[in-house]
Design a protein that fits this description.
Number of domains: 1
Structural class: mainly alpha
Number of helices: 16
Strand order of the largest sheet: 1-2-3
Oligomer: single chain
Mean pLDDT: 82
Shape: globular
Number of strands: 3
Order of helices and strands: HHHHHHEEEHHHHHHHHHH
């Protein structure tokens, strides 16, 4: 860890201490309002879609109000506060704390394997009374900061094999812990984060090609060693021929999701009126398969609206990466854009049958407090970079 921990942290800490905290605040006029609008609109649409997905749930029908929406609103309030706090101080100060965030994330990922709760076959959650959270979501933030800080230290040096190996060492520890849960979908997200940051950092192409070859070999080894369970492999490959697989097993979700999205036609069946989703034919419709609710209840019109909002979010993130004042901000933005782009593509793709079923939530829209809070912190990070693009 000589690239960051020996000299980078010391230098970042000195710069952080020397920089006056009074000068780190940025005016609200520097906020990227389009980015904020897209995130808010997606979150509000998420409330509506979660309500539509759970309208027939017995706990909702017989209870007082929709508990799913209530919990999601609480998560949103926590997320917006966390995002606001994230934007308060100059993001360059985060370099000094990236190792601390990374170490905390690794510790939580290790603890969840010992004391975590198992949900949908993965021991990936901590439960405290009625509350639960997934440390892998917060680890996404930590790995983005860690890798961005690492490559920032090499900004005046050649990004050779040493820089790449150190970055891979940082990434492989949390990735290995996530694979042991096992949560193959989140494992792939981390791989995409690494790839996005490596591309933006300017690592030589031959090293990237070698990394791809190594990744393929690692996946093959994981399959041979049984780290990836057979039912998980079936879920990943069922989209290739859902009708040819057991329609009551691996291919069931894919087939039912396609039927639900197709039945929405142009303007949908109406909010809270989805025949497939409300009848329980699409499992996990409020979480992993939330886009089936979008397609069935709001149709092509609502689907295009969601895609358009994600397009704005990703465009603004890429723009912030391009206009950042330093490599650290550029790499933070690249990591955040990689997360949002990949999870959107996979979540929507598996709902329409063109991508494997990995269990990834659709950012801002899927039900899940940890995911929503993390998404808003990520928005806060790139807002921070944007607000200080002209800072000295």
């Amino acid at each position: 860890m000589s690239g960051l921990t020996s000299r980078g942290v010391d230098r970042a800490a000195r710069e952080s201490i020397q920089r006056s905290w009074a000068g780190t605040f940025a005016p609200a006029t520097q906020i990227d309002w389009l980015l904020l609008f897209a995130a808010l609109a997606l979150t509000l649409l998420g409330f509506v879609m979660i309500g539509g997905a759970t309208a027939g749930d017995p706990a909702v029908v017989q209870g007082e109000g929709n508990i799913y929406i209530q919990r999601q609103v609480i998560a949103f309030l926590l997320g917006i506060v966390a995002a606001a706090v994230t934007t308060l101080f100059d993001y360059r100060n985060f370099r000094a704390w990236s190792v601390v965030a990374y170490g905390g994330a690794v510790l939580l990922l290790a603890l969840v394997l010992v004391a975590g709760a198992t949900v949908n076959g993965a021991q990936a959650w901590f439960r405290i009374g009625p509350l639960q959270f997934q440390p892998a979501e917060f680890a996404k933030i930590a790995i983005v900061l860690m890798l961005a800080a690492h490559f920032h230290e090499y900004r005046e040096e050649s990004l050779g094999l040493r820089a790449l190996l150190e970055a891979l060492a940082f990434a492989l520890i949390p990735m290995g812990l996530i694979l042991l849960q096992p949560d193959f979908g989140t494992f792939i997200v981390f791989a995409v984060i690494v790839a996005g940051i490596l591309l933006m950092a300017g690592v030589h192409v031959r090293y990237l090609l070698g990394l791809v070859a190594g990744s393929v070999a690692a996946i093959a080894a994981a399959l041979q060693l049984g780290i990836v369970q057979e039912y998980q492999l079936d879920r990943l490959t069922a989209f290739l021929d859902p009708e040819g697989t057991d329609s009551l097993a691996a291919g069931y979700n894919v087939v039912q999701a396609q039927i639900a999205v197709g039945s929405g036609r142009v303007f949908g069946q109406g909010l809270g009126s989805g025949s497939q989703t409300l009848s329980g034919f699409v499992p996990e419709s409020q979480t992993d398969f939330i886009f089936t609710v979008v397609g069935e209840q709001t149709g092509f019109f609502g689907s295009i609206l969601v895609l358009g909002l994600f397009g704005i979010l990703i465009w603004r993130g890429m723009r912030i990466a391009a206009t950042s004042r330093d490599m650290f901000g550029t790499l933070i933005s690249a990591g955040v854009v990689s997360i949002f782009t990949f999870q959107m593509f996979i979540s929507i793709g598996m709902a329409i049958g063109i991508m494997p079923v990995t269990g990834l939530p659709l950012p801002f829209i899927s039900y899940g407090g940890t995911s929503l809070i993390t998404s808003w912190v990520l928005v806060g990070l790139i807002q921070n970079v944007h607000m200080r693009r002209y800072a000295k």
